[in-house]
Amino acid sequence: MLERAKACLHSGARDSLRCAQPAPGHHHYHHHHHRSTRTLHSSFWTHGAGDLELPPWLLSSNPAHGLPAHGDSSAGNSRTRKKRGRESTATVEASDGSLFLDFLYPPQALAWLNQTGGQPREKWEGRNARRLPDGFVQTSRGYASRAYPQPARAQVHDESERDGQRRDDASRRLGPSHPLIGELLPEAGRAEEAGQVATSELEGGEDIAQELIRLSGDDGEEQTDAMAKLRNTMSASRDSYKRLSPEKALLLSDRVLGLYDSLQDSDKEDSRLKVELLCWLAPYMTTQAEALCTELYRTIPVEERTLAVYQAALNVFLRRGRHVQALILHKEALQNIGNGDQVTKTFFTYALLEHRWPLAMNVESQHQAALASSQRDGGASKTNMFWFQVSQIPQLLPHAMEFAKYLRSLAQAKTDNEQVYTFARRFIREALLQEFESPERARYKTSVAPQGGSSLPKHEIGKLFGHLRDLSDAAKLYERLLFSMISVNRRYPYAQIHRVVSFVYKELRKKAASEGYPMDEGVFLTLLDRLTHFWGALAVKREIHHSVSVNRLVSDWEVDHEKVSLDGVSHLLRWYSSQGDLANFEKWWAYLIQHYPEFAARKPLLANKIYLHARRADLPKVKEAFGEVQETLREHDESIPTACWNTLIHAYSRDDDLQGGLDVLSDMVEQGFKPDEYSFQPVMEMLARRGDVEGVRDLLHQYDTLVQKRREASFYGSLIQALVNSGDMDEAEMVLKEALVEVRSARVRGSLTGSFNIIITAYALRRDVDATMQTYRWMKSENIRLDSETFGALIQALASYRQTHAAFKILRVVMPEHGCRPTAFHYALCMTGYINQKMFKDALEVHKHMTMRKIKPSISSNAAYLEARARKEEIDKNLWDRRDHDWDSRVRLDETMKDLKRLLQKFGEGDNAVKHPQHRSGPRTRVRSVSSAYFSTLIYIHGQTRCFAAVKQLLDEYRSLGRKVNGLTDIQAPIDMIGSLMMAHLTAGQHDEVERCWDLAKEQANEFSKTEPVPQLRSPNQDAEPEEPGDILQLQPSSDAQEAGFQIDSKSTAPSKTTTDKGASASTKSSQTLVPSSDQSDAPTPKPSPGRSYILSRPLRFYLYSLGAQQRMRDMLSIVSRLFTQGYTMDNSTWNAFIQLLCQSSPPLVLLAYTLTERFLIPNFPGWAPVSANGYVPHASARQQGLQYIRARYLSPGQLMPQYKTLVHLGAAVLQLRSIEAMGRRGQIDDLAGMDKYIGSMRQLRKEAPRTLFAVQSMPKVDDALQNRLLRRQ
Length: 1274
Prior knowledge:
The chain is mostly helical and 1274 residues long.
């Protein structure tokens, strides 16, 4: 023992001196030398020889697995020492303070000590311990040193940092076009991180190579024999080739070859050594190593050749391209060892990956021949094991498609044979089963198109099924593959593999026809469900290529089983009722009665007869169907189920008939039926649309009392929608936070995706992108599932900020990345965004994008397309430039009219049954009058271009179509169409028709904007509670506000901070008596709901223009006052038009105009933008909203602000007021008699409207047509 210690001390001293030398290649003036990371403890020089006799585990206090000892701070401070550049030391003390001399023990003993007591290791040892075989941990000797050239490492670190900075700069330069797109797109850079990990592992491998080479060196004075060194080197460096660089691997293999060459001839004949050396050298790709491996395999006796020997030799043969020798080896392995099929798997995998198909078939034939000649038991099971092992090879399908190409080349060369096709059938079978029966979900890319997506070459895969026809169980195999593609646990979404399913189904039907094999009815039913949903999302009903359809499937079902099963008929009836397809529903209802006449078969489907007409929004037909169902159930002594009541309430919701829905719900409860969540939800939706917060809360309380079940998350969505429509966004967010807590605690059932979508959409419509994205991030942080409506809100936010290109990128890129498929609703949003930016060609490109992907259009997408088409044709015909010249009133948009007729001819009865949101529909456009959305836009555009003949033709066609669809003689136009007609009549100067249209619009608005009280729902056995009389002291007089003139109320003159922040909606409600009203009082009209208070803004604006053109100022003031008294409000455009008309009267009503501007519009005025001497070009978004030269670009729909044109008119009115004061008030129009107080004086203006007067006086002087005409006219 002492002699061994002496030799180790000499060797350690020599290594220490070597480490003290300057680094190779460094100049003498360098102060940074290689330093050892482990130094000798001071107790080494004072230890006694008695310590050597004690067991090492008694002396060692080291923790297991390389953890620092208790109280040792060296591990914790290693990072600090490394940063300071100090020399790190590792002291390993025994329990008595002495040093454990690990270098005095052989490696085998150290390995045992590490397993029992825990041997301290350096960082590279702990990192690479798992890579060494059999749990062996290579420990460094106590005096060994590791040296690092510090300046070189620092230089490499600096270069890596610079490279990383350059990569970051490049990534920033190549970022997305819009910040929102960058946030929504998935993060990148994983490949770069993987490259950095690989580099670090390579560096670690180079560090360990130094230790492995040193282990086999001759540094010690007393060395073991060459055989022991060779064995130790191979044992310690097993699998090191995976971590070493090619240069280090070559150095290590040369070292091992040198050690083998230094052996004596007798030692080289050791069979065990030959086996070990062959297995160790096989991975090293050098000529010397491969030559020696070949020689070693040849000299190893056949009876001593194991699986490891065959695998190592096969690796060398295949790498050298010696396929003949590999086949000989494979044949011998199958005969010599019992587990030779492992060699077969390795050999076949090589042939498969290299696409060496003759070699692969030879391997399979050798395997089959060996099993046939074998006398061992289990030969039959061994035969199946070959293909089982083939199925374990990953990604077989791409290789199967390559093999199919090889088969085609053989067929063209006429060199194919039956053996080749037998192999092909088995191989393709395993590839297809592996691809479609794997339990793992496939990684695929969602496509914009419903029938697109994934990276599967569908046509090439379809051809593979033809090779399976000659299998004995081909029919069963086709059915098995078909069911795996359409089952619930399928790897791919059905829409993305529909074409592959069509190929399988085609082959299966051929087999079924030739062999009389009937398909299982379960497969028929599952495929029917997939096909109905697939074709329901497409704009076409068939495709050019072979594609299985619902009609084809039903026909084959009847061929195999004589009739469609009851489950199949029920599915078709439910599907067609949800789509509003009357013809197909009646067809299959007759089929049901014919083949299943029992009442028990029809009873569960009676509600679908009502639901069919409910989706078509045909309320009279719904009532008729409900009565028929009641009569049928009465004949069989059955009570009407709750589902029928719920469907009837849903029909009233589709027609937006709140009173009717409440009546049905009351009747349901009074007749003893217990409602459920589906009974309350439609009524809550109608209340939410109107902004009736108290009504929704009342209904929620009655739900808790009557149903006594957990609330649904959709109920909170209705409450949030009501708060949003009433303008209380803060309270809406508070309700959403409360709903989150309730859902997390399982007191509320359902998903909150819809509630978050309501908040996001509300902020998007208010053009608040920051709040929209903040809510979106909140939604993601709460792990709430995103859906297509979430991205629809983001698209709306970008489109409202005139970033439609970025919005369209969300549709094309971001939504597929998140697994959401766009619908016609998203395309309508993008088209509308381009239309608002007057980019009509781009809007038509969006529609083309949708059409090419066969996405089923909707009412909103068709309406947006017609508007873009009409505007584009209007520009092409140069109609606007011809307005002031030779005007041709007969010019019409002929191409757009043709498109309208085409859409009306293709108008399906189920187009109004779509369940995704409908953009561009009016606040109260009845769903059954879907064509009004098409006609309104064209009527408005033709009215602008004075093509009144086209307006009359469009109106007649609309009425004719309405009579055809609804069967009604009196067809009334909805409010959005009335507004378009008023624009046409106004342009034609037909003021009587404008007034008649206004009366129609007012009548409709009073009808469907009124609020309905929620009744108290009581069952028959529930006694009504007596009403308590109210306190007489609480009675308040009604505020009629029927005053002859406006009053300056101190409470409403200065708007509150809340009013200023929230916009105009609050201020208009708090000051409804500021405009003059008529002395004549109207009949009492119901107050409109908060969500419908803006419904008359557009018709009112046209009516005010008509009254202004007739100088009927008294009627104008009376109309506005009456509307405010009744609870209606005006949007920003109507307010500005009203102020401008007040300024344009003769004489101008200056004081009234300034006072109303001061109270309603000027609080949100941000001031004027700086206009330089070089000129100022207003932004397009500001010009579109009339905010030129104002510090604003975007306004939310409810925000009020004076427009540039309004302020110019106010300036012109001041000039006229000064002229009136100077010249006297003579020549006044009789219609304005008695209204002198609305004209006012300059003194009154300074007192009542100082901010408005300052805004007018500080208005920048711009040389434009408006100021020149109004302010600088002679």
